[in-house]
Specification:
By secondary structure, the protein is α/β, with parallel strands linked by helices. 38% of the residues lie in helices and 19% in strands. Bound molecules: ligand BES, manganese (II) ion and zinc ion (ZN). Ligand BES binds next to helix 10.
Length: 527
């Protein structure tokens, strides 16, 4: 898609040269200063064909005095970017199956367009035009739409231009995450995700990728991660991405994505109905790859590391059994009470691995619990963090990118449910507060740095007729990183040294136990 911006105000609006003109109006901002357009709007309202309300749209073919052959009047609730995006989406739905190759989007006089408006528009266009076709040759051919022009006032032109550019980079990332999510489990294997990471590093010079195989993962002592792979014929991968945008001395932000390419539940087998949707259980991994795709183009001045533990969760004669005890890279032992709580088992070792980067902050992204879907539905991602500064920054980025999260509790008390008679930790609590006990489980591996967890089980894909990946939360993550890069000395910094010392004993204890973890992992691999 080709995105342009152009300046047109007042009487110039009806003369905008395009195949279709979309015009966004709000209850308080309904005039354009163009006599032709204003009369059309007034007549349409008095004929009760149109109203200045969210969701209202009126298509007019060959309106007299308007240069574009197609005009769509659109109602928006208010001038905010979110309402603007909904109105534009509605307008695109009206014209996308028509012959219009070039759509121009204008707004009422006084409706200030910010960079966030332009970004939102680009993501709206992606939503309207994305078609999955990789394994569906019969999918509808791409429509006629080739070019979208945002019409703004002179005052807003610079912001719109910048927003369009950022929006396109984010849209590339969202599209990659969506596509990876949509790929069936027999296409999107751990090996495929590794190949995607390598492809990113070949294509973009600021991105580097390293893909570890089973032997290398064993060497690291990731006994918890490896226990999830025991039943699968597909080899696991541990992917390490780096985006170097600042001096090597700058502490990086680390993103950790759950990459279960198919989750059957393992021996704790899931029911059959809807199990196909567990191909989306690599949504966290997809969002990390998508964010790197966006960063590669946006080039913010910040260092970012991406970690993706990826494997399948399958039942078989060699699969991990309920009651098995595994040794994590941290040295903590885990009783696998339910093999379907596998996400936390692969993430905990990646979170331990993250310590070596002395990160400013670590954020994990995971389709972790059905309980989170029950709590929040598919509107907000669940955000869990004991760090108010980090949590606030993530919530703000979500609002700005229209990819929102909602903060959930993470009190230690919930951890009572994770006690085990046979290991340091059990991998499940009860049904109650299931999204929170999962987060508390992860927190046992994140004491060395600032950390937040995003449970995207509800937001990473849609079910039903619109079944498909959403590309979330690429928008939130990318915005968070852009904001951190722009924050300079106010950016989130690593935990102060003093806190490190306070944790010193525990950390030393962990290190001392790592050789044991390695041995256990090697033994498990041989068995
Ligand atoms: N990938 C699932 C979580 C999930 C389930 C996401 C449904 C979206 C929709 C995860 O691995 C899982 O199976 N979690 C279990 C945890 C339970 C066994 C404690 C769950 O949520 O049921
Ligand atoms: Mn599971
Ligand atoms: Zn899962």
């Amino acid at each position: 898609m080709d995105y342009r911006s152009t300046v047109a105000e007042g009487p110039a609006l009806s003369q905008v040269n395009a195949d279709a003109l979309l015009l966004v109006l709000t209850p308080d901002l309904a005039a354009t200063g163009d006599a032709v357009l204003d009369k059309l709007v007034k007549d349409a309202i008095s004929a009760e064909d149109f109203a200045l309300k969210a969701g209202k749209a009126l298509y007019i073919h060959r309106p007299a005095g308007v240069k574009a052959a197609r005009l769509v009047l659109l109602g928006a609730a208010d001038p905010k970017a979110k309402s603007y995006k909904s109105a534009v989406a509605k307008g695109l739905a009206q014209v996308k199956d028509l012959g219009a190759a070039h759509v121009a989007v204008a707004a009422a006089k006084g409706l200030t367009l910010s960079a966030d408006h332009a970004k939102a528009l680009v993501l709206g266009v992606l939503d309207a035009t994305y078609v999955y076709r990789h394994t569906k040759p019969s999918a509808p051919k791409p429509g006629a739409l080739k070019k979208v022009t945002v019409v703004s006032s002179q005052a807003d032109a610079a912001a719109v231009k910048a927003g369009l550019q950022q929006g396109q980079a984010v849209a590339e990332g969202v599209a990659l995450a969506r596509e990876l999510g949509n790929l069936p489990g027999n296409y999107c294997t751990p090996t495929h995700l590794g190949d995607e990471a390598k492809r990113l590093s070949r294509t973009f010079k600021h991105v580097k990728a390293e893909v570890l195989d089973r032997r290398a993962i064993e060497k690291l002592g990731m006994g918890s991660f490896l226990s999830v792979t025991n039943g699968s014929a597909q080899p696991p991968r541990f992917i390490i991405l780096r985006y170097d945008g600042a001096a090597a001395s700058q502490a990086p932000v680390v993103l950790v994505g759950k990459g279960i390419t198919f989750d059957t539940g393992g021996i704790s087998l899931k029911p059959g109905a809807g199990m196909d949707e567990m191909k989306f259980d690599m949504g966290g991994a997809a969002s990390v790859l998508g964010t790197f795709r966006a960063l590669a183009e946006l080039k913010p001045k910040l260092n970012v590391i991406g970690l993706i533990p990826t494997c399948e969760n399958m039942p078989s004669g060699t699969a991990t059994k309920p009651g098995d005890v595994v040794t994590s890279m941290s040295g903590q032992t885990i009783e696998v009470l339910n093999t379907d709580a596998e996400g936390r088992l692969i993430l905990c070792d990646a979170l331990t691995y993250a310590e070596r980067f002395k990160p400013a902050a670590v954020i994990d992204i995971a389709t972790l619990t059905g309980a989170c879907v029950i709590a929040l539905g598919n509107i907000h991602s669940g955000l869990f963090s004991a760090d108010d500064q980090l949590a606030d920054a993530l919530l703000a980025a979500g609002l700005q990118a229209q990819d929102t999260a909602w903060r959930m509790p993470i009190d230690d008390e919930y951890g009572e449910a994770l006690k085990s008679n046979f290991a340091d930790l059990g991998n499940v609590g009860g049904r109650e507060g299931g999204a929170i006990t999962a987060a508390v489980f992860l927190s046992k591996f994140t004491k060395a740095y600032r950390w937040a967890h995003l449970d995207i089980a509800g937001s990473a894909w849609k079910s039903g007729g619109a079944k498909g990946g959403t590309g979330r939360p690429v928008g939130l993550l990318t915005q968070f990183i852009l904001n951190q890069a722009a924050a300079g000395k106010d950016a989130i910094a690593p935990l102060p040294k003093k806190a490190d010392k306070a944790e010193g004993k525990a950390v030393a204890g962990k290190t001392a136990r790592r050789p044991a973890a390695k041995k256990a992992a090697a033994k498990a691999a041989k068995a």
